[in-house]
Structures are given as C-alpha cells and as structure tokens.
Amino acid sequence: MKSAVLMFPASNCDRDMVVALTKITGTKPEIIWHNDSTIPDVDLIALPGGFSFGDYLRAGAMAARSPAVKAVIEHANRGGKLIGICNGFQVLTETGLLPGALMRNASLKFICKDALLKVENNQTSFTNAYAKDQLITVPAAHHDGNYFADEKVLGQLEDNDQVIFRYVDDQGRATDTANLNGSRHNIAGIMNRQGNVLGMMPHPERHIEDVQGGTDGLAFFESIINSLNS
Amino acid sequence: MKARIYVTLKNGVLDPQGKAIQHALVALGFDGVDDVRQGKFIELELRETDSVKAKANVEEMCKKLLSNPVIENYSIHIE
Amino acid sequence: MKARIYVTLKNGVLDPQGKAIQHALVALGFDGVDDVRQGKFIELELRETDSVKAKANVEEMCKKLLSNPVIENYSIHIE
Amino acid sequence: MTWNNNVEITGALVKEHGLSDDESALIYEILGRAPTLTELGIFSVMWSEHCSYKSSKLHLKTLPTTGDHVIHGPGENAGVIDIGDGQAAIFKMESHNHPSYIEPYQGAATGVGGILRDVFTMGARPVANMNALRFGEASHPKTRHLLSGVVEGIGGYGNCVGVPTVGGETNFHSSYNGNILVNAMTVGLADQDKIFLSAASGIGNPVVYVGSKTGRDGIHGATMASAEFTEESEDKRPTVQVGDPFTEKLLIEACLELMSTDMIVAIQDMGAAGLTSSSVEMASGGGVGFDFNLDMVPQREEGMTPYEMMLSESQERMLIILKPGREADAKKIFDKWDLDFAVIGIITDTGKLTLSFKGEIVADIPTQPLADNSPEYDRPWVQPVPKDELLTSGVAAPDDYNEALLKMIGSEHLCSRSWIWQQYDSQVMADTIQMPGGDAAVVRVHGTDKALAISTDCSPRYCFADPVTGGMHAVVETYRNISAVGAEPLAITDCLNFGNPERPEIMGQFVGCIQGMKKACEVLEYPVVSGNVSLYNETNGTGIHPTPAIGGVGLLKDSSKMVTISPQAEGEVIMLIGETKGHLGASIYIDVMEGREEGAPPAIDLELEKKHGEFVRSQIDKSNIAACHDVSDGGLIIALSEMAMTSGLGMNLRFNNQKVPMHAYVFGEDQGRYIISVKPENADMLKAAAKDANVVIENLGTVTGKNFIVAGLVDLSVEKIKECHGKWMSDYMA
Ligand SMILES: Nc1ncnc2c1ncn2[C@@H]1O[C@H](COP(=O)(O)OP(=O)(O)O)[C@@H](O)[C@H]1O
Ligand SMILES: [Mg+2]
Fold this sequence. Notes:
The complex is a heterotetramer, with 1 copy of chain A, 2 copies of chain B and 1 copy of chain D.
Chain A: E1 3-7, H1 14-25, E2 30-33, E3 44-47, H2 61-64, H3 67-77, E4 81-85, H4 87-95, E5 101-103, E6 111-119, E7 135-142, E8 146-148, H5 151-159, E9 163-167, E10 187-191, E11 197-200, H6 218-229
Parallel strand pairs in A: 1-2, 1-3, 3-4, 4-11
Antiparallel strand pairs in A: 5-8, 6-7, 6-9, 9-10, 10-11
Chain B: E1 2-9, H1 16-27, E2 33-46, H2 51-66, E3 72-78
Chain D: H1 11-16, H2 21-31, H3 37-46, H4 49-52, H5 57-60, E1 70-72, E2 79-82, E3 87-95, H6 97-102, H7 104-120, E4 125-135, H8 143-161, E5 165-172, E6 181-191, E7 206-211, H9 221-224, H10 245-259, E8 264-269, H11 274-286, E9 289-293, H12 306-311, E10 317-322, H13 327-336, E11 340-348, E12 352-357, E13 360-366, H14 367-372, H15 401-409, H16 418-421, E14 432-434, E15 441-444, E16 451-457, H17 460-465, H18 467-484, E17 488-497, H19 504-524, E18 528-534, E19 538-539, E20 542-543, E21 547-556, E22 573-577, H20 588-594, H21 606-621, E23 627-630, H22 636-647, E24 651-653, H23 662-667, E25 674-678, H24 683-692, E26 697-703, E27 707-710, E28 714-717, H25 718-733
The complex binds adenosine-5'-diphosphate and magnesium ion.
C-alpha cells in the first residue's frame, strides 16, 4: 500500500502516523506539505492529529482551506481512500467531505483518556479486520471532539450505517457517562456515503504496540490494507 | 475602514460555553439570567474605502473562512 | 431584555488568533486586510426590565467573570 | 510622550529600576559615565535577582555538578547528560510563579513555552514536559481559579506544541495563598555531536533574530520576579505576556531544521529579559561584542523605543549567530515556517554591546562586566534548627482504620490528580510508556529500546520542618521514584522556590536545603546539571514554605523491563522492603487527622537509600518483580491502596507489627521503603536475594479478590477506595 501523510503547520501527530503506517505497510509514507498543490499518487492519504494553525478560529478551519487539501479533495472524489484522525477529522468536516462539525468538548476541557469504542459497522474499508460490535480501546486526546450534526444529517448517518465508532461503556452501551465529549449519538467516527473517507477523534496510531498500553489500533490499518487487496 | 463581524451559533446548536457561563453566573449570585450564548467578535482593519465593496468583500471572507455554516451565523458591520 | 457584551483584547496584548486569521485571509487571496483582532461576543437574556439596572448588573458580571481584566476590555449594549 | 534616552539618571529612577546605591555606583564605574536610560534598563534586568542569581550564586556553587554522565552542567541553557549510543538527554526546570499568579492561564502557558525553548535551543527535540505546582489551601477563595487557569494554560500550550506532559506534582498549603508556584520542566533528546551552545564567536558573523515580533509584553517581567509581592502589584497588569504555542511549534521545527545543517555558530533563546539577556550572555560567553541596529528588530507595535525593545519579554523568539554568508539559506527555512527572520547586527571585537537606533547610539556597554561583575551577595543567614521530634504517644490512633484510610486518600493531599493530567496530552509522540499516576513517567527514546524515567518531587512541609533533611528528601524522592520503575537515576535539575532572601531565616532555609541536596547528590552520585532559583515568593511579609523542587531523570536501558505500580495478577506476593519505624512527624496523617503540622520530618539514611534503590533496580532488571511502588506521603497503607486501585485487584494483607503503635506503623512516613509485588514462584528467591544484599524485607500478603483487606484493620472494596480517591479534585473543581 502506498500512503501519504499531509502535514500542516502545527500538525503534531504526523510522526506518530508515519511510524504506524511504516510499521503496518512496510513502506514509509510520503509527506505532503500544506502548500503543495500537487500530491503524489497514493492509495491512502492520512490527515494527522495536532493543532493545525494553532486551531485558531475553529479547529481545522484554516487547514481545510490550504492548497494541498484542494488536491486531497480531488483524490477523495476520485475514490481514493482518506482518513482524518483527531485534527484530521476536524479538517475533513471543515472541507465538507464529511458532514457535521466538531465543537468544543461539553466539559470545555481538553480530554486525554483511553476511549472505549464500539465498532458499529465492520463492513467498511477501515474496519473489516474488527468484529461487528467489537469493543476496542483507543486513546483520545482533544479539545474539540464534540460531534454535532442536525437531526436530518444524524438520521442519514444512522440509516446508511455511516456511524463507524461510538463511545460506549464496558457493556457496549452508548451512555451519557461513556460519552467522552458530548458528541451527538456518542459519535466517535464516521464515514462518507461512498465509503472511502473516514474521520475519527481517537487515535488508532497511538495503540499499535503493547508498551503503548494496547494494540487495538492495528486492525484499523490492517483493514485498509485488506480493502486494497480485495 | 473597520469591519466588525459577529459570529454566533445557530439556533438549535447546543452552546456548551454559553451554558457554562450561565452556570457560573448563577453560582456567583447573579440571578435573572435566562440564557447565555457565546460567539466570536472579529474586527478587521481594511484598506478599502468604499463601504459597499468592503461589505461584499467581508461577506466573502465570512463564507470562505470566518464562519462555519453548519453551526454558525454571522453578521457584518462596516464603519 | 437582551445584553450584548463585546470582549476584546487590550491594546498591545498579543492576539495569536487574530494574527493567524489575517495570515489565512491573505493566503486565500483577500488582500487589503491590515489587521485582525479576535474577541468574544456574549449575549445574555435577562429577566430585568429596567435598562439602567440591567447595565449595572451586567457591568458587574463583566468585572467578575465575563472578562479577564488583565488582558481584556469589554463593552456592553443593552436593548 | 517623546522618548528621551538621555534623561537625567536620578536616584529615584535608579531605585525604580530596583538597583541599590552600590549597584548604581558600579554602573558608573563600568561605564566611566552616567548610563543612558536604555543602559539603565539593561543593567537593571541583568542585575535583577532573576537573571544574576546575586543572592544564590555563592551557595549554588557548592552543589555537585559533575559525574560520568554529565556532558554539560549548569551554565548552559539546560543540562546535558549522556544516555549512551551517542545520544544525550537535555533538561531543565524553571519557575513562572509571579506571572501565573497574576494571570494563571498565560503565566503557566508562557512558563511552558520558556522552558521548551531552553531545551530546544541546545539542539534537542523536546520529548516530555513535567509540572510541579503548589497552590494555596483549598478553602482560599483564589485557589480554584488559579488551579483551573494554570492547568488549562499548561495543557493549552503543551498540547498544541505536541510535547506530551507526562507527570508532575501538586500540593496545597496556606503558605502559597498569595504566591502560587508553577514550575515547569522539559526533557529533550539530541545526538551528542549535534549540541548547540550559546557562546558567540567569529568577528563579523551575522546576528539573526527569528520567531515572533517584539511587542511591549512583560517589560520588567524579570524585575517583577525579583520583587516581593504587595497587594498593589496585582494591578501591574499590562506586563503579562501572551503565549502563542502555534508559533512555538513552528519555531521548534524551524530551529531543528536549521540545526540539521551546518549554518549555526551559536544559538540562544530569548527568555527573561529578552533581547538583553540573550545578547549579553552570547557576547560575554564568547568574549566578543555585538553591534545591533535596533531598527531591524521585527516589531509588533508602533513607536517602540530601544528601552522597550531591549526589555520586552515577548515570547517565541530566538537569537542565532550564523556562519558568514549563510543568511539567505537560513532565511529560506524560516520563510517556509512563516516566521520572522532579521539580521539585526554583527559580531565585533569591541567586547561591547553597542545599540543604534535611528542613526544614534543609544547604549554602549562592555558585556563582560555587565554579565560577570553583577553583584554577588553573601546574605546573612542563620542555620535552621529542625523542629523537635513529634512523640507518637501524643498522636491519637484512628477509631476506625477504614474511615481513616478513606479520609486520607480522599484528602486534597493524597487524592487522584487525574482531573489535572487528563487535561494534558500525555501520549502525543506515541512514546509515553508510563502515564501519569505512577511513580515516574517513562518515555521511550524514539526508535530505540531505551527509555527515560522522569519524576519531580519535593515535600515542602518537610523542608519547612527541617530544611536540610527536606532538601535531602526532595532529591531522594526522585531517586526512589525513578528506581521504582526500574530506571537508573542519572542526574537532576532543580527549581528552588523561597521567600525573601534578605531575611536571614529565609536565607537560612535556602542554605539548609542546598546543604541537604548536596549531601544527597553526592552519596547517590546524582549530580545537578541545571536549575533555576525563584526568590521573593512572599506576600506582605509571609513567605512560602521552602520549596526546592527537584526534577530527576533516569535511564532504562531496556524499556521492556519497566514496571509500574500495578500488580499484574492474583496470587502475587506483596512484600515490603525497608524498615518501618512509625515516624509521624510532619506527616500527612497528623495534618489530615489532627490538623497539625508539627515535628521533624523522617530521618534519611542516604547509604540505605542507595542500597535499596540498587536492590530494587537489579531485581526489576532480572524481571523478578511484577510491580513496585515507593512508600512516601501517607505511609504504607496509602502506597498499598494506590497499587490496588491502579490494578483494580484486591489484596489480603497482614501487618506483623509488634514494635510500634499500629497507627504509626500504618501511616508513618519512614524513608527508604518500597513495596513490591512478586509472582509466587519468585517470592523465595527474592527473599534470599534480599538477605544476600543485607536488605530488610518482609511479606505482607497476597494480591487477591476485589477487596483491600488488612487483617484486623481494614476491609474495603477497591472500588470504594477508588471512588473516594477520584472524587476530591473533580468535586472541588466542579
Ligand atoms: N500537576 C501534575 N501534572 C501531571 N501529573 C501530576 C501532577 N501532579 C501529580 N501528578 C501525577 O500524579 C501521580 C502522583 O503524584 P505524587 O503523589 O506526587 O507521586 P509520588 O508520591 O510518587 O511522587 C504521579 O504520577 C504524578 O506524575
Ligand atoms: Mg512515588
């Protein structure tokens, strides 16, 4: 699998993403700089976490308007695979590739905590290596992860099985206490209708080795490789 | 000239910051506050001297960057 | 009645957000933007009906909570 | 007001600048004439306590600063130690106390920014942040607001720059009601052959300013940090600096990119006293002069005067000496990262700092005397007398140990700090292998099997009761915390926070703590490689508790050997290393249960600490230990219940204590102790090994079930203890 990681000023999980992709795919991803207007031909583009442009104005807002993102949108429109993790998810909603918006956490505080997620849909390019309804632990660390969309959009997301990950308790229930940040419908990650673009707040790339406290992030990347091979 | 832009959350969008402020006000003993909404206030110093043109230009800025139509409304004052 | 509060950074206080927004506007091709400052805009729904009393009350809220006197100024509009 | 550089330098003006008559006379002597206003400003900040260490220098010199691992000790921007394979760990701790009291968010944020710059200016990529915080008592009306702002500020800055904040410590005490302490530490990694120093050289080389523009921020910040607080100074508002972590992140990346080339001769961050101290340090360090054209300084505000430019403490700025002719290449890097880049001067052979502004020379000062002839005081001090030993017989036993345990663990002193650390990204960079909540934080050395263990510690109540023992204790506590994860303690940094040094008893506390630190560092072979002093932490004549915060760094050669405080499985055997004598003086127990702060702190046997540390480390290295936790605040039972809470597993324990009253055994804070959890099949071997090493060890029980049970004393569900432990701070901050 050929991949690339898009870097904005003050991206800060870019290295983590590069390490994860290198480990899992065996090849080092290319780096795309936010000012590049042409991007390499790859199977997967990853928008990493961080605080692009300081997260000033709105998280991801300025990054979403950068030249490289225009090219990334074209990549996605051609059916190319695209993931946005944390700040990357915020950027994707700001571009409109994914619906909704990510607002300040309901607690108004930054939250760094292992999140328990339920894999709601495993029939996707990003989750086929998980079992349906599998509970996985993935570290979350964000200030603006409170997913918002209006009822109509939420209804569409649910009806089309576009909600991929939800914050749940250890019984798999999407309760208010399990809801890390106040997200509508406990949403932690969603996919576009076509199934090639995914955004999520928690960081699978931080859980790929035992010493990091878990390896539940591995299957996320393995799923993408599976989907390209099938 | 100066442009003042007020960016507010749309009706129906929950405003955790506003809610927290209302809470804190009550805790401080201020009663009679029925609702609080927090938005952004952006001031631009523009080189443009024609207020109609300025307004059109700022409108464009709001659409392209300064507000997120999924959750926000904006209004513009030029002076 | 409604109170609108505009909280702005004092003169001379660095405004990293404003700076970044200005940069982004320029990058998007908007020229002629000399300066950008970002502040807060807070709307209160008050039960009070006397505008003088409301103003005094809101003034107190600004001092105690809504603004940070070390780096911010505020202004109040009652309607 | 028009600006006049040549105003008459009156006595009042000199005083306003915090300079004494003697100091003023020295200025005239150095210059051979009256200073200009700009020069007066420069002298005043350079000779402030904060920059000159005039009260502390004499005593700091006594600390051990060398050792096999030390590459650069104090004197550089940060300390540098050898961690093998040509790599180095670079670290330092610094205070941002006064600014954080005035504006907690920005004060704490800029504190983090400042310490990060001290570390990356030496060529290191910052890999971990720590924070040591002291707040006033919980009932003080300001505490909540300060705690909330400080934590948010630390998180706001550290999270954005993408450096994990991996641990710290937090105390509450009334002595900090008007003077909170915010000490921040950064640890970075570099290759030993890529370490950058600040001494300037090369006559004619360009001096380059990079980073943010200069505004009027924090003018006189350094002198503010050197003056006692009065109620009035809370109004000194516009001097607060605002941090821009976004720019800092770009600055880190741009500087590291520049450092990967061969263009740099020397580099220095602009910290306290901004352009002044950075340029004076660089020039005097290299024995050269600087010729600056201040018109070239990137300015954020209009009409800035030379005085303001030289004293501004605007954040996120660096000064770099480039090799000649490399300006354009270097500028390309800063352009890419959207940062200001300006050649503001050149190196001269005059030995002077010469500043011109709009064609006029506004300052012309020989840098050597400005840097080195700064006053050095031998302030009068009295050797502190330790408080009397507290007799255990005068301390009541609890009626109910269940309740006592819950009361202790649910107090502000011992409760979980998770409300704090959850606001910090502790995992960014994906190398954090031990998160906050344990004894030491552990971060991997990226791409290797090695890891660094880091801990910050100090028990101000011990230092208050007996500065010498307290100073020793702070060092020893980091040593134990680092040993407890299996790492070898290598070196420390310190942040010495004290009251007004002009009072002999405060100066005595300072000297006493240093005496204790010195002894501990010597015996443990654990040198001081960097540090910071913050004096005048005093409001209306009341000083803080002496607080020599220590930041220790250790090395784990094989990170897979690391242990945590969490027992791994049921059936493991719990053992206690070290002797329990039941020392209750200056303990958390008498504070929480009886509201007293009396007695001498527990004695410290440094040789024993060393022996126990070595024993624990060697057993961890042999993978004979499943979990380990040192015994500190709150004593044995607190340490045991912390282990139970982290694992979620219960314990069935029995205390075979015949010698001392049970409550003293349970809550006493005797030093040199560790609790280990050992697989049953390893238990006998471990005991034998302890015997061989002449280490006192005893069996306390086993890991089992869901309840925390001490026969005849305590029977509580681990869930219940956890709930109590987790509640205080989140309730307090709700
Ligand atoms: N301000 C803070 N920021 C981050 N972590 C903290 C802070 N205060 C305490 N902690 C963490 O809480 C845990 C307990 O702290 P402490 O009781 O000081 O540990 P110890 O007694 O082992 O030195 C440690 O893991 C420490 O890193
Ligand atoms: Mg400990």
